[in-house]
Write a structure and sequence with these properties.
- The chain has about 90 residues and is mainly alpha-helical.
- The chain is about 85% helix and about 0% strand.
- Helix 2 packs antiparallel against helix 3.
- Keywords: Membrane, Transmembrane, Transmembrane helix.
Length: about 90
């Protein structure tokens, strides 16, 4: 995966142990997606208490965070959550 260049290099170097590296990457993905779920819940909680300025800042930080850490297919799914929260 292009999000972890260092891991990708190790992955290429250790061809014989490729299965364990695939499992490691899957584990990392699962951890990252659970972080996203927590973040989504946090945004929902803030929107219920209704501090608009804080909510907008949080979404902005969340977008930056996503651009750094998450693959595109996850982002598309999360845009839907964000759009739903706006209405």
């Amino acid at each position: 995966p292009n999000i972890f260049p260092a891991v990708k290099e190790i992955f290429i170097l250790k061809g014989q142990q490729s299965l364990s590296w695939i499992l490691l990457l899957i584990t990392i993905r699962i951890i990252l997606s659970s972080i996203v779920l927590v973040d989504a819940l946090w945004i929902i909680i803030i929107s219920l208490w209704g501090n608009n300025w804080l909510l907008k800042n949080r979404i902005l930080l969340w977008r930056v965070h996503l651009n750094i850490f998450f693959p595109r297919w996850m982002i598309h799914r999360l845009w839907i959550i964000q759009i739903l929260l706006h209405y």
